[in-house]
Amino acid sequence: MYPMQGPTLSARIKQAPTTPGVYLWHARNGTPLYIGKAANLRARLKSYPNTTHPRIRVMVQAAVTLTWQQTDTDIEALILESQLIKQYNPKFNIGGLLVMSVGALYFTWSAIKERRAEREKSPD
Predict the structure, then answer these.
(1) What is the dihedral of CA 37, 57, 67, 114, to 10 degrees?
(2) Predicted structure pTM score
(3) Higher model confidence: residue 102 or residue 15?
(4) Number of H helices and number of E strands within the chain?
(5) Which are the contacts of 58, defined by CB distance < 8 A and separation ≥ 6?
(6) 31-60: burial string, b at 16+ Cβ within 10 Å, e else
(7) Distance between CA 103 and CA 1 in Å, rounded?
(8) For residue 78, which of 48, 46, 119 has the smallest C-alpha distance?
(9) Fold type of domain 6-94
(10) In b/e form, how buried is each residue of 76-85, taking b as 16+ CB within 10 angstroms?
């Protein structure tokens, strides 16, 4: 396998759906280098080839495959992303997911119906 760059990467990104989901950049040995989520997988993945962020450029250059898993909602993508990060502990994911310095993440019925999460201060 060769690194996913240039036309190969662009062609793979064009195959991505426009639905919510989780995407994984894989190393040569198959382990995930980075796991991310997106409300629109194709739109999110299009940002990677032209990034100027040095850490992301290194990650994209090291990746040999790009995979994704579609979900029905953004919240499902958030949960799946968190589970996969805990399972694989990818090199380019910094720290854990859902680690917040202030407050907590609450899901209300209206937020779930509207496919959004709300941050609120802790009820302490």
Answers:
(1) 20
(2) 0.74
(3) 15
(4) 5, 5
(5) none
(6) ebbbbbbbeebbebbeebeeeeeeeeeebb
(7) 44
(8) 119
(9) GIY-YIG endonuclease (3.40.1440)
(10) bbbbbbbebb
- pLDDT tens digits for range 3-14: 566 668 889 999
Q: What is the pLDDT of residues 45-89, one digit of tens each?
A: 999 988 898 889 999 999 999 999 999 999 999 999 999 999 999
> Residue written as tokens 């709300």?
118
The two tokens of residue 99 are 């680690």
What residue segments make up the domains of the chain, in order of their start? 6-94
C-alpha distances out from residue 34 to 93, 107, 115, 117, Å: 6, 26, 24, 23
